[in-house]
Design a protein that fits this description.
Glutaredoxin; 16% strand; 182 residues; alpha/beta; two-stranded antiparallel sheet; 5-stranded mixed sheet
Length: 182
């Protein structure tokens, strides 16, 4: 019986996804996020480990909300080179929709977002989810909606950008290209 359990344990360990070994502390600490308006969850290690990543905290009723259009264009431009984008809606700055249905409408219908979007999360202060706590530790906490973090394949923040930085900004694009080249 013990030999059989040992064999089962060993086989399950050998069958574990290879990405688990490559998952950075940035992603591993979070685990999963609920996908926006879906029963599915986003496993951060499985989806993003070893990939260049742009993480953006968003809000549906912010003056910067039209940046969704530019973020989607940026994603379409670089996704063939491995770039992933993760949008994380938040009401930390009191500009997120009151329900996830309205958030989803803004993202998916109004702006045609196809990159990963989570359900609203806390992104600043003591209530911040582990992903944003780690981003803040490596860089700085978001000061407003549409704060952008470019993360390398190794899970280290390459650069962060304020809400004023548009998705087509030269410095943002240079950071993304650096992340892709890693």
């Amino acid at each position: 019986m013990i030999a059989r359990l040992s064999c089962l344990l060993l086989s399950s360990l050998l069958a574990a996804p290879l990405w688990a070994a490559d998952c950075s502390p940035l992603l591993k600490g979070q685990g999963e996020l609920q996908q926006l308006r879906s029963k599915e969850r986003i496993d951060l290690c499985q989806r993003f480990a070893g990939k260049p990543l742009l993480v953006v905290n968003t809000a549906s009723h912010c003056g910067f909300t039209p940046q969704f259009k530019g973020l989607e264009a940026l994603y379409q431009r670089y996704k063939g080179q491995g770039l992933e984008v993760l949008g994380v809606p938040s009401d930390d700055f009191k500009q997120e929709a009151g329900n996830s249905g309205e958030t989803a409408k803004v993202c998916f219908i109004d702006y045609g977002v196809t990159f990963a979007m989570s359900e609203p999360q806390a992104v600043s202060g003591n209530e911040a989810i582990p992903l944003f706590s780690e981003l803040a530790e490596q860089s700085s906490a978001p000061r407003w909606n549409f704060y952008k973090y470019v993360v390398g394949r190794d899970g280290k923040v390459i650069a962060s950008f304020s809400s004023l930085t548009k998705p087509d900004d030269e410095d943002l694009l240079a950071a993304i290209e650096k992340a892709i080249a890693q």
